[in-house]
Write a structure and sequence with these properties.
- The chain has four helices and seven strands, in the order βααβββαβαββ.
- It is α+β, with helices and mostly antiparallel strands and 145 residues long.
- It has one domain: Gcn5-related N-acetyltransferase (GNAT) (Aminopeptidase, 3-Layer(aba) Sandwich).
- Strands 1-2-3-4 form a four-stranded antiparallel sheet, sandwiched between helices.
Length: 145
């Protein structure tokens, strides 16, 4: 399957971003809407994964703090490398923006996915939206000019 990843903003892609995150986090994982819509989207940089027919199938956001969050891929498109591609694209954006480190709150079942992408666990397990998480980070070398 051919996937294209595009950089976008909440203002330009809110409907598609909301649809993916509603299906994955609110419907599948039962995350309360008040936690999912945290007010951080307008100032974050977003990335959408599109299938060859243009359908939005996954997303991730990069927050100004360097936090990567809301990585989600619609169920029929999982285990095809889309999450890894979204993660790598967001990391590259952070690097280009001059960040030296990115971090995320990984659901504990997904820590091995993030470890395979070079992330390291930092600290113990904590609960977020009634789901166990671990904070993880990764150094990203800032671009030199």
């Amino acid at each position: 399957m051919t996937i294209a990843i595009e950089k976008t903003s909440w203002q330009d892609a809110e409907q598609e971003l909301r649809e993916i995150r509603t299906r994955v986090f609110i419907d599948e994982q039962r995350v309360p809407e008040t936690l999912e819509w945290d007010g951080e989207d307008a100032q974050s940089t977003h990335f959408l994964a599109r299938s060859s027919d243009g359908t939005a199938v996954g997303c991730i956001r990069l927050m100004p703090s360097g936090q990567l969050s809301r990585l989600s891929v619609l169920e029929p498109y999982r285990n095809q490398g889309i999450g890894s591609a979204l993660l790598a694209t967001a990391e590259e954006e952070a690097r280009v923006a001059g960040m030296t480190e990115v971090f995320l709150h990984a659901q504990t079942h997904a820590t091995s996915f993030y470890e395979s992408a070079g992330f390291v666990v930092n600290g113990g397990i904590f609960m977020e939206a009634d789901i166990p998480h671990r904070q993880m980070y990764k150094e990203v070398a800032a671009e030199t000019h």
